[in-house]
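anyone seen this seq b4? input:
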Amino acid sequence: MNKSLNKFNMDFCDKYNYPVEIKEHIIEITRLFSSFDNVLSVILMGSTARGEFSYKVSENHLILFSDYEFFLIIKRRFYKEEEIRLQKQLLKYEKNLSFNSPLFHISVGREMVDKIMKLPKIIRNYEMKQNGIVLYGLDLMYQLPDISLENLDYKDLNSLIYKRLRHILFFIPKDMSFYLQDCPEAAILDYILTRNALELTTVFLPYQNILLPSYRERVHYVLDNLRESPSFMQWFHDDIRSVLELSLAVKENKIINVDRKDLYLKIIVLYLDIITFLRRENKLVFNEWPKGRNEIIKLYRMFIEICYKAGIGKAISWLFLKKKETVLNVLLSMHVALKNRLTGEKDEENIVSAYKNLKALYPLRSIKKEGDFVEQWLKLRDVFNILWARWF
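predicted toks r here
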């Protein structure tokens, strides 16, 4: 039924007891979307729609940890001048809201109404259909594709592993000290660690024939089944229970003291567990070839640049390199090297492996192995972040 909303649907803000500022933000952004005559429907998705939005009230201002995620169903493409106005206004909102919230971002997906039935069958779109909220316009949720265990894109699901490991890597303090005092940086690191730990359930459960649309449901399912059948998560270390309980509590904005170093070490071990499981089952595969226009353009530009600067031979080798698998290997080497450093173990092998794989991924960049462990590790991270910005 194509029920139309002439006013903005904000009932979920009261349902989830969100601060009034969050409601005001979403109304303002939705008003912007509704000002374009080609927008048929505005859907709120992600953690905000699920009641899992993370924030903190600090010194009379609101710190936003989660993003605002929207999906627009449109009847035609935006004209050039409309696109400029939309992006300019979104950038203004994001800049204003991120002043006290460095993690905050406004994410906006869009698709033509006659193509929404063919949206990719990925976990993100499954969550949107299950939890999405129509804020304005026509309720076209029924036209979104039905996604199940049988047609879910598992290669896309697996990509969450390297994306979350990269997210953690990016926010590790330069001095590698996890003992931050009570400050915004400490709260950010708490969120980064716990939010990315929750993704373990997102990836693992579909391989156990369980598909659930929220962190809360996934974590409770795991904890309930662990109580009834300890072998349910036999692939994971015993820390899985305490890590998930703590991570969900932080995500739900409950005040908890976090031992960040201990939590980081446990999370890395658990990610190693899930990678070991997928490799043994021969299921650790990724969508190695680009699937969208932007990915194709980035691949082409990098290929041409490598041809020009390093020669056709290296460019062809790079083209057929399993880049996402290699990205995962770089991240694993760096995290394991840091884990071993924090626990007092010597580890030259993983640093060498990270250098080797990063050089294969980014042959245009000269990467010299110089300095002590901290200098080498930080240099690797800097180069990896440059590559990530260019490729991903």
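Strands lie at 4-5, 39-45, 55-58, 61-64, 68-74, 106-112, 133-138. The chain has three domains: 4-143, 154-280, 293-391. kinda curious what u guys think
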